[in-house]
Specification:
This protein has helices at residues 86-96, 107-121, 132-143, 150-162, 174-178, 214-218, 239-246, 307-320, 338-346, 392-402, 461-476; strands spanning 3-6, 170-172, 190-196, 202-209, 225-229, 232-233, 253-259, 266-272, 281-287, 294-300, 325-329, 354-360, 367-370, 381-385, 406-410, 418-424, 430-439. It is α+β, with helices and mostly antiparallel strands and 477 residues long. It is built from eleven helices and 17 strands. Strands 1, 2, 12, 13, 16 and 17 form a six-stranded antiparallel sheet that branches. Strands 9-10-11-14-15 form a five-stranded mixed sheet, sandwiched between helices. A four-stranded antiparallel sheet has the order 6-5-7-8. The longest helix has 16 residues, at 461-476. A hairpin with a 5-residue loop joins strand 3 (190-196) and strand 4.
Length: 477
Amino acid sequence: MRILLCECNSPPALTPFSSTPPQKPPPFLPNAAVWAKKTLTTALTGALSLSLLVSSPSPSLSRDSPSFQPPRPPEFSNPLPDRCTEEEEQQEQEEDKVEFKPEFVSNEEIVQEAWQIVNDSFLDSGRHRWSSQSWQQKREDILGTSIQTRSKAHELIKRMLASLGDPYTRFLTPDEFSKMARYDMTGIGINIREVSDDIGGVKLKVQGLILDGPAHTAGVRQGDEVLAVNGEDVSGKSAFEVSSLIQGPNETFVTIKVRHGNCGPTETLEVQRQLVARTPVFYRLEQVGNGPTSVGYMRLKEFNALARKDLVIAMKRLQDMGASYFILDLRDNLGGLVQAGIEIAKLFLNEGKTIIYTVGRDPQYQKDIVADSAPLVTAPVIVLVNNKTASASEIVASALHDNCRAVLVGERTFGKGLIQSVFELRDGSGVVVTVGKYVTPNHLDINGNGIEPDYKNFPAWSDAAQHLSQCSSLRRG
């Protein structure tokens, strides 16, 4: 079995998998003022973007960690009326009997697992090296030989993925995979996804779970349906909204109500948050020249689990401090969680405005994504970009630019318009697979092309405002 972990979309040669110390922000410019069904009982996954983390135990998330307190025995409430057919109940009972233990997984099974993920999910980004026939032959060639060691299995997976000719599809060692914990959207080691039911509704399901993480230790299981957070019914909310409700300060507690499986009992659990991500937001208020006008400068280093939450705090504080304009600095931001990029773009756009179009083999990647609420700020925005502005950063930059909400200043962006998902293999390693691509609201395919800025050098604010006004007039036609 395998499990979708996160849809990461950072360039491979520039990928921020390894931890780096906080960097001083670039100088301020002068006067600038699924795989949902193919799940694993003890693993975890991500959402539309790069969204989650590690399912193998890590020191910071183990039961031996001093910040973990053994939870009191859970109390089950009475089961709700049966909502499943007898056949579904029987299937669920059979699935519950299956337990995967990484130490018992053979080398051949690990290679087969990686092959199957690509077979089901890979999107050829234009090199045309993949076909179902050639990929089937690849499986027969590899599995026709004896694989004596785990290192040999991993080497075979690397060669198999390299044959695709996609620089973003690659293998992750267990150590590299474990570093994905900073993309945990909830802080308790689960990923929540919206899953359609048979009657046209949507359930919020746990489609990813860190083994021995906070939620798993408290009793949450893969496939559970989330019903409430801190007593608040989550019916009608999006997966991102529910993940945000679960977020909170490190080592504090959150109460979640879940229904086990499709037909099981409900249970209310208290879970201790264990945050791994660090804030990616730096902000300050700048004066424009000697005048009264103030500019809110915000630098976003990456799109991790805290990006939207901390950017909202920055925007509100800068507004309260009197900011008349905003600068969003995305220079050297290589991306991260696609969903975080989408949610951040919504903070600037009017309801109904297109953020991005996505396509992929899986229907979940064939979407027109639009803003669904009023913007947090309406003041003019300048977005700073350079040749290391990539992926989720380009989603935000293009969404604001194409909707006449911001002018872009700096250099042409990196040009990565593909979406990857991270899948965990049963020995704790993983594979990153290209599963989709996106185009901008103006239908520009930026992959390999990047986005050309409006200005190379920082413009006067009056020029920026005039540029945005003209853009809006042209769009109105």
